[in-house]
Design a protein that fits this description.
Helices cover about 45% and strands about 15% of the residues. It is an alpha+beta fold. It has two domains: about 35 residues; about 80 residues, Glutaredoxin (3-Layer(aba) Sandwich), CATH 3.40.30.10.
Length: about 140
């Protein structure tokens, strides 16, 4: 009787491991995926202040890649996005934390330094880019 019980226990354990192992691996992988803060620029490629923002947004996107998700949506082409984000004027910058929750919104032109300050004031700090381009340097 003990031998039969022992074999049954081993079979149950092996089946449990086989069934539950993929879930444990997926849970471990999910922990490794780090959610990043996000900056969403809502504007247009044809609006003058938006055109002034374009190089700033692109620079932040390149310099803080892997630390910050930067996205641009042309609301004149995507009216649904304008409604979804309740855009009243462009350009509008929407700041999201690592959980995807909006924590700040700005309308109009904003400098790169002020964008980074907003994140810092909300506890989100970025590593300085190694190859940051300063005026007058190549």
């Amino acid at each position: 009787m003990k031998k039969g019980y022992y074999k049954f226990s081993i079979v149950v354990m092996v089946l449990l491991v086989a069934v539950l192992a993929p879930f444990a691996v997926n849970a471990a992988n999910k922990k490794e995926v780090k959610k990043l803060p996000r900056l969403l620029e809502l504007g247009s490629t044809k609006c003058v202040p938006c055109k002034m923002m374009a190089p700033i947004i692109e620079e932040i996107k390149n310099e803080y890649k892997g630390q910050l998700v930067v996205q641009f949506i042309d609301v004149w082409s995507d009216e649904k996005a304008a409604k979804k984000y309740k855009v009243k004027s462009i350009p509008t910058q929407v700041f999201f934390d690592t959980k995807g929750k909006e924590f700040f919104r700005h309308v109009g032109y904003i400098t790169k330094e002020d964008i980074l300050k907003v994140f810092e004031q909300h506890g989100i700090k970025f590593k300085k880019p190694a190859d940051s381009k300063k005026p007058g340097k190549k």
